[in-house]
Specification:
The chain is mostly helical and 342 residues long. The protein has a single domain, classed as NCX, central ion-binding region (A middle domain of Talin 1). Helix content is 81%, strand content 1%. The chain contains 13 helices and two strands. The chain has a two-stranded antiparallel sheet with strand order 1-2. Helix 2 (12-21) crosses helix 8 (194-226). The longest helix is centred in the middle third of the chain and has 33 residues, at 194-226. It is globular and about 60 Å long. 53% of the residues are buried.
Length: 342
């Protein structure tokens, strides 16, 4: 019954697009409608990823889910930069890294219960996140004294972005090699074929991008209506909703007992945001009227580093425990309070 409802709910995506461009619905109503439309899309991405992982294994499966799930976020970032909202983009990047590591990983551990995780793969990726945050200090510290969007920091951000992209490619190749030699069972009889899984992922990602773009453009009016600050909207609401695909996919997969794939999705997604989405957004912004510098606030740098460190502590033994999931979720709620205060 629940599956039928989710399949039927996919109609919310075209309804949201029609409501925006055909009916010119108000921004607050559009926000609610778009957020609702992202839920079944997230389920489809999770479903397709799990079927793809039957053929590729959890490592590649987590990479596919994170890649398809982060594509809409990159599109959202470009739209926001073009609208002159670089601070919103940086906040969204921060929120995505932190929410994937603490919230998604934590909920996946809670939903999946005690199980195994690939400690070696996670160690590679969490070290990459910490390294990226450390590298971002080069552009962030000068931004704490003066405008973080000044032209000098745009120039400094270019080599930092290139270094992050090279590191991302190296880490990704190394991580996939780790999983290449891992034995995996034959795909289940009811599993989708790999082409069907990839086609579903592609279509769901395109729909997610369209719905997410509508949601972002309605966020400012929604924030004004409910009295939320722009930074808080970016770092919490946009980050969670923009990553609904990975969030929902990881939770659905964890509930089915595949904790290893679910945790791979959470950590791979955070690593991709820090080492791929952020530098690509900065480089893509260069020909635009408004530019994105990789200059983050102190609270953003601190929370990204602390989130990665805490995740490493709870996963270094190669096991997933439900109480550790509650610890991560509690840490995320504490971070949300810090964002609210800041």
């Amino acid at each position: 019954m629940a599956r039928r409802i989710l399949w039927a709910s996919l109609a919310l995506a075209p309804v949201t697009v029609f409501a925006r461009y055909g009916l010119h619905l108000g921004p607050t109503a559009l926000f609610v409608l778009a957020a609702s439309a992202l839920i079944p899309l997230a389920w489809v991405i999770g479903e397709a990823t799990e079927h793809a992982a039957e053929h590729t294994g959890p490592g590649v499966g987590g990479f596919l889910n994170a890649s398809f799930g982060n594509a809409p976020e990159l599109i959202i970032a470009v739209f926001a930069i073009a609208d002159g909202l670089p601070e919103v983009v940086r906040g969204t990047i921060t929120g995505s890294v932190v929410s994937n590591i603490l919230l998604v990983l934590g909920v996946a551990m809670i939903a999946g219960g005690d199980g195994r995780v690939d400690a070696r793969s996670m160690r590679w990726q969490l070290v990459a996140v910490v390294g990226a945050v450390t590298l971002l200090l080069i552009t962030s510290i000068p931004g704490w004294h003066g405008s973080p969007d000044r032209s000098s920091l745009v120039l400094v951000s270019i080599p930092i972005a290139l270094v992050l992209l090279v590191a991302y490619l190296w880490i990704t190749v190394a991580n996939l090699r780790i999983h290449r030699g891992t034995a995996r069972p034959a795909p289940a009889l009811e599993a989708w074929t790999l082409p069907r899984s990839l086609a579903a992922l592609s279509l769901a990602t395109i729909a997610t991008a369209a719905v997410s773009e509508i949601l972002v453009h309605s966020l400012r009016a929604f924030g004004e209506a409910v009295g939320l600050h722009e930074f808080f909207i970016a770092v919490v609401i946009v980050a969670i909703v923009g990553n609904a695909a990975e969030h929902g996919g990881a939770i659905v997969i964890a509930r089915r007992g595949n904790t290893q794939l679910a945790t791979e999705i959470a950590i791979t997604s955070s690593m991709q945001v820090a080492l791929f989405v952020a530098p690509v957004a900065a480089l893509v912004s260069l020909p635009l009227r408004h530019h994105l510098t990789l200059s983050f606030r102190p609270v953003e740098i601190a929370t990204m580093a602390l989130a990665a460190g805490l995740a490493w502590v709870v996963t270094k033994d190669g096991t997933s425990k439900r109480w550790e999931g509650f610890l991560l979720v509690g840490a995320y709620l504490a971070v949300v309070v810090v964002y609210w205060v800041s």
